[in-house]
Design goal:
about 525 residues, eight-stranded antiparallel sheet
């Protein structure tokens, strides 16, 4: 298991300095108050690693679905130990010690003394880290700390149950192949095992698995009535360290015992009971954002406070855009929910459904983020259409020609070269159904994007490309040329556009988001009933 290096460096460097306070609080590894909790967590994990079923269950007080997960963890640890011993006999301890499984639980137990935790009276949450390190919930029962949940993200129970069950089978199958003489070296045996486990992870995808029913509620101390973090307080505290008075107050205001998670460069404090997640930067502990959401099948409750900018969870997308205008960027499709950004307001919105053209798509969550430099302004709601156009490049006229537009050639970084394009629009956003990022160029080493055309858009583009083979066409966004490719051959219903930027040297996300927002812009008035946008 990888240690939470950035997160622990933050805590141990003394950026956090918590005093006794009411409500939930983060307890540092150096604070003796958390010693009993960490010792109980380490003891439990050690017993799972040793397959001490009776010992682990004596420290466990979880609901039924968690008992099933614990049994799967026992099978996972036991199967890995059998494989480890078989590899040790055949190829030596050096190879055997690289087998995951029981070693993973031992590693988790070892680092408990270095882990921060969330403490709230008789309830505690040990921080989750990376990969399969999922954190633990604990409760003080009759004076002793016991584990109540093996995952602090309870909705992932089914996914991890499937993973541990399937991974135990992978260990058994690898051991059977080893016993049958199927490996001529320790390296080949480990490679086979790692491939099996990778395939299992791909199939099970525990990170995204959801249960069919809501998870069991964990025992909690009484919470203050209507306890929640105020969105205005979050905005005022943006950029403040997690150990500042503002940061401590935000955490203390959360009901029940929030989940504490560390992932790469971030620290997350999640309160499923109030539909709130606070995000802090691990490097310096600064508050970087907050997410407020509606109730869902993961066990998250609806955020009970007032949303920023006059938004409401009763709003559909058409209502949001009447209040805020059209978003500067958006992302949609590929089975992910439609998302929209408003940089001026520092808002990121997520909707329930994936359709980019559904005016009644319900608002699902609202995220706040701090001011950034160089962010494009939100485009006004009354920006005239069309926003995204294809227009033919024409020869330079000998005299002024009202049928032509004079624009900057985007292929010239100096901005001094101009080209002339026809004002006649070959294709606009109404002929495009989807945009996505893509790799382009002869060796697929350039950044680019892919456009999927509607049947009508494909017909119009095929006619234009057939009649103008070899000519350049400007792809314009809000009157600015973003790329001017050459039309080679008859174009189909899918266009791959090369931006001629090395893949490792650029960021196309903002451009893709702008294109998506243009393609999926709603009309300024909602269509009549029965004529919903598809």
């Amino acid at each position: 298991m990888k240690k939470l290096t950035p997160m622990l460096a933050l805590f141990l460097a003394g950026i956090l300095c918590f005093e006794a306070q009411a409500g939930p609080r983060i307890v540092l590894p150096t604070d003796a108050e958390g010693t009993d909790v960490r010792a109980a967590a380490a003891d439990f994990l050690g017993k799972v690693a040793d397959c001490d079923v009776a010992g682990a269950k004596a420290l466990f007080a979880g609901p039924a679905e968690q008992e099933q997960l614990l049994e799967a963890q026992f099978r996972y640890a036991a199967a890995s130990e059998k494989l480890r011993k078989a590899l040790a006999d055949r190829f030596g301890e050096e190879t055997a010690n690289k087998v995951p499984g029981a070693a993973f639980f031992r590693s988790r137990a070892k680092v408990q003394s270095e882990m921060p935790l969330m403490l709230n009276g008789d309830s505690a949450c040990v921080a989750a880290g990376q990969n399969l390190d999922t954190g633990l919930d604990l409760q003080r029962i009759a004076g002793n700390w016991k584990v109540t949940h093996l995952l602090i993200e309870h909705h992932k129970t089914n996914g991890f149950l499937d993973f541990y069950t399937s991974a135990a089978r992978d260990f058994d199958e690898a051991r059977a192949k080893l016993n049958a003489g199927g490996f001529d070296s320790g390296a080949s045996a480990l490679q086979d095992l790692n491939q099996r486990l990778a395939n299992t992870l791909t199939k099970i995808a525990p990170i995204h698995s959801l249960p069919t029913t809501r998870p069991s509620a964990r025992p909690q101390p009484p919470a203050a009535p209507n306890a929640f973090v105020d969105a205005a307080a979050v905005q005022a505290a943006m950029g403040k360290p997690i150990g500042s008075e503002e940061g401590k107050a935000l955490i203390a205001a959360l009901p029940a015992t929030p989940r504490l998670m560390g992932l790469m460069r971030w620290i997350f404090v999640a309160s499923y009971e109030s539909g709130t997640t606070l995000t802090f930067r691990a490097a310096d502990g600064a508050l970087q954002g907050a997410n407020f959401t509606v109730a869902d099948s993961n066990g998250t409750e609806k955020y009970p406070g007032a949303l920023p900018s006059g938004l409401s969870f009763n709003d559909a997308r058409i209502d949001v855009e009447r209040k805020l205008g059209r978003p500067a960027t958006s992302h949609s499709g590929a089975s992910f929910p439609y998302e929209a950004d408003y940089p001026r307001l520092r808002l990121h919105l997520t909707y329930v459904r994936d359709s980019g053209r559904d005016p009644r798509n319900p608002l699902k969550s609202v995220s706040l983020y701090p001011p950034e430099t160089g962010v494009a302004a939100t485009r006004p709601a009354d920006k005239p259409s069309p926003r995204l156009t294809f227009q033919l490049v024409m020869p330079e006229p000998k005299a002024a020609d009202p049928a032509l537009m004079r624009i900057v050639d985007p292929t010239d970084g100096s901005g001094r070269t101009v080209i002339f394009v026809s004002r006649e629009i070959v294709l606009d956003e109404t002929g495009i159904s989807e945009v996505s990022g893509a790799l382009a160029g002869s060796d697929r080493n350039h950044m680019g994007f892919s456009l999927t055309l509607t049947p009508d858009g494909a017909r119009r583009m095929a006619q234009a490309s057939a009649a103008n083979n070899g000519r350049r066409i400007a792809i314009m966004l809000d009157g600015r040329a973003i790329v001017v490719p050459t039309m080679n051959g008859k174009m189909s219903d899918r266009l791959l556009i090369d931006l001629n930027i090395p893949a490792e040297k650029g960021d196309r996300e903002d451009l893709i988001g702008q294109l998506d927002a243009a393609i999926n812009a709603l009309p300024t008035t909602e269509p009549a009933a029965g004529n919903a946008i598809k």
